């Protein structure tokens, strides 16, 4: 009985939310964008910017003079989009870069290639997403909705954060815009079963990934404010929009959707308007941690404001982003993301740093202590930077152990 309910409840919740959104859209016009300031000299990355709302967002930002990098996993489609936007906007600074959000390795490679360009970064639009895909895993073994919609963007944002911070100014912050959905209201986040192993529901998985994005955005903004960083992070809900996102609906639902979409769904340009607004509007300067729907601030689900849940998800996400793509002493570790409460997550990439991870994975406390001490000493000696001031001043290897162990005690996704 329970597995049946666990399967059906997310479906019912998702469709009820859909009906509610459609009633709203029937009664309210789509938000009209105000005149936005020019964005000359600003650089934006738009994930999934080659089609749907991502395309419209890229197009609009380019028309404002933004240098737009479309990050997507279909090169041909991306290059066509670039040409089209260049033609429509008359703006040449539009380019495509390959990014597969279903691969943490690809996310890292994308960031490396972007950094190699030496461009600043002022706007990051975490737009890409998939919905209702039958049970499937990402390259790293995560449930697809969670891994692609949420975890890929979590890593991308964290790896780009230093660039966003450097490009931001107190009077003109860099902006992170993350596209969630009303389905997050029906999302349930089970930290012990993020991969939906106990009973899989693609409806539940999509809603969960969208709730995770809201939790992530709020927590990220808290961290940015705590450091006084000139970066804001907001989450947007585009409403129900007629795009390819619905391609995985079952055939009867596809049939029913067609006429409804014609009448009540927003167009991709209308759907993208709130993201464009969040990316460029002067009145949002310095405002972060908002849930924006139809151009207005709205209250998101009660659970999205749960600070403990936000923090726990952050910590768990850091742990999950531990890479398994290269080897050291036979263990597959490449770079390590540390969750440091109240501090910036740090990406440890040197072999010495990885050694900490390896020794912890091997669960050998005695092996760990001299390594940790060695890393601390060598790090100070060669000037390489620990990820936060707290680490730089850390002299007690036991303290280091307690901080990193929550990352490394797990070697496979949960
Ligand atoms: N449509 C709606 O009613 C609605 C409602 C609420 C929220 N949303 C959200 O809005 C966002 C945009 O969706 P949309 O409606 O515009 O759908 P869409 O037309 O299907 O666009 C989805 C985009 O995501 C990209 N993408 C998919 N898998 C990817 C991967 N592995 N790596 C990189 N990019 C990938 C696609 O790029 P490629 O073409 O390169 O694969 C595509 O550009 C999504 O986050 C969605 O959840 C949509």
From TrEMBL:
Principal localisation: other
GO MF, one annotated term: oxidoreductase activity
EC supergroup of this enzyme: oxidoreductase
Location of this chain's protein in the cell: Lipid droplet; Secreted
A Pfam short name: adh_short
This protein's UniProt keywords: Lipid droplet, Membrane, NAD, NADP, Oxidoreductase, Secreted, Transmembrane, Transmembrane helix
Domain of life: Eukaryota
GO CC list: extracellular region; lipid droplet
Pathway listed: Protein modification; protein glycosylation
Catalytic activity: a di-trans,poly-cis-dolichol + NAD(+) = a di-trans,poly-cis-dolichal + NADH + H(+); a di-trans,poly-cis-polyprenol + NADP(+) = a di-trans,poly-cis-polyprenal + NADPH + H(+); a di-trans,poly-cis-polyprenol + NAD(+) = a di-trans,poly-cis-polyprenal + NADH + H(+); a di-trans,poly-cis-dolichol + NADP(+) = a di-trans,poly-cis-dolichal + NADPH + H(+)
EC number from the UniProt entry: 1.1.1.441
InterPro entries: NAD(P)-bd_dom_sf, Sc_DH/Rdtase_CS, SDR_fam
Matching SUPFAM superfamilies: NAD(P)-binding Rossmann-fold domains (SSF51735)
Membrane-spanning segments: 6-23
Role: Oxidoreductase that plays a key role in early steps of protein N-linked glycosylation by mediating two non-consecutive steps in dolichol biosynthesis. Acts both as a NAD(+)-dependent dehydrogenase and as a NADPH-dependent reductase during the conversion of polyprenol into dolichol. First catalyzes the NAD(+)-dependent dehydrogenation of polyprenol into polyprenal; polyprenal is then reduced into dolichal by SRD5A3. It then catalyzes the NADPH-dependent reduction of dolichal into dolichol. May also acts as a positive regulator of starvation-induced autophagy.
Similarity comment: family membership: Belongs to the short-chain dehydrogenases/reductases (SDR) family.
Protein name listed in UniProt: Polyprenol dehydrogenase
Provenance organism: Hemibagrus wyckioides
Lineage: Eukaryota, Metazoa, Chordata, Craniata, Vertebrata
